[in-house]
Amino acid sequence: QTKTGIALLYDEVSENAYDIRLKLTKEVLTIQKQDVVCVSGSDHSANHRTVTLRRQPVGGLGLSIKGGAEHKVPVVISKIFKNQAAEQTGMLFIGDAIIQVNGINVESATHEEVVHLLRNAGDEVTITVQYLREAPSFLKLPLGSPGPSSDHSSGTSSPLFDSGLHLNGNSTNTAPSSPSSPIANEPKYEKRWLDALSVPLSMARISRYKTGTDKLRSNAFEVLALDGVSTGILQFYTAQESADWLRAMSTNISDLTLQNMKMANKCCSPSDQVIHMGWVNERLEGTDSSQLYKFKFLALKGSSFYIFSTPPVSTLDWVRAEKIYNLCEVLFKIHKLWLADDCWLQANLYLGIHQDFDFEDQRPYCFSVLVGHGKSHYFNVELGSELAVWEKSFQRAIFLEVQRTGSKTYMCSWQGDTLCFTVDFALGFTCFDSKTKNVLWRFKFSQLKGSSDDGKTRVKLLFQNIDTKQIETKELEFQDLTAVLHCIHSFIAAKVASVDPVFIDSQSIARKYMYSN
Fold first, then answer.
1. Of 135, 143, 311, 400, which has the fewest beta carbons less than 10 angstroms from its beta carbon?
2. Which domains does the chain have, with CATH numbers?
3. pLDDT for position 38
């Protein structure tokens, strides 16, 4: 998707926001800032422009100003009136900060002081200006080029409202003065949007949360490139604008990730293909609140589920994953609780019921991956569509691995005997003596009617005898019971999917949620 638009760049330190222009292409997000550039003539000073204004009997200096030291911003030109002194110079622009008035430095002056100085400066006023690229949004400076503007100024000046200097002021000369006009040799200037920062979107990540917290930014997010370069906090005027930009950027990042996957898969065997990969936030257990969540890069490739701190760029990078788990032995789980709460919240909003609950403290779109020895990883993604993709991708990767593997055998014991327990895609469950290899019992998947475990090492499997219809209980002990239970789940789910794929699709929580919204 390609897209352009105006947004705000929010500075968390100063708590100010200023206007920027965003340009989104397939591969890059560019941030542009307005600046005044010299388009012809010799520019002696790129930053400062010195302009002489001749006060006119009607229209005065032809400009209005805002700001002042009391608001920790310089005094800036907020309006330029058509066909009046300031506009006729061709060298002054809305957003220019006034540095000097007739040689007097006013960078630390209050609004009222600058107004007084300009109104009492005589018929010819020389001002030095510099364009304020990061004008705080509270000044509400118009972004367009100067145009006709009516006089909204009152007798009292205010730092956040325009003080008009297009009145006569204290002119000593009642005769009409010649208009201010650009001299032929003088440089010509234009206000333009200039590229300030370009962020490559390949392997980039997006965050809507204040760093390390559960606090959701209002209509704002941050984009971080693979090398860590950040756009800063991009703030939008409406929730709809924010959602549209978030979706557009996420789509472009996903498309580039797909390209990277295709390139990586050219170097991999058919049994070791990347099924899906992307950024998530992982919740860190047992840490202070400032490090509640951390960015992690997940990948489903071949027989394994990988967790990285940074994306794998080369073939060698795959061995440096923080964690690697066998796909048959993990269990993907969406957190239904939030989805239910959200549907209830949606219904309340639809009915116009407003209740005082702080919904900023919980992250939506969360899933867990349960691994061996009862451990788990808790992840969050930015969009519901991403959650649906992860659910489908885990399902597909696990089913492919089950079909490739065919069977998995685990060492176990019961009443002092060392046994082997096999889960087989075609045959079901088989238990045999590890020494003699004699089969002790065998059941199909369809014969498993229930199970219970002690949460540690021991499990009871309840099978129905085909002939007698009686339930037979088989007890076994495993070193890593969780991994075995996940493996049983994976094989049965893959078996059901091979027989009835529509049933598996109907169980998708994330896609149901996306459809309902």
1. 143
2. 3-37+193-250 (2.30.29.30), 48-135 (2.30.42.10), 268-404 (2.30.29.30), 406-507 (2.30.29.30)
3. 82
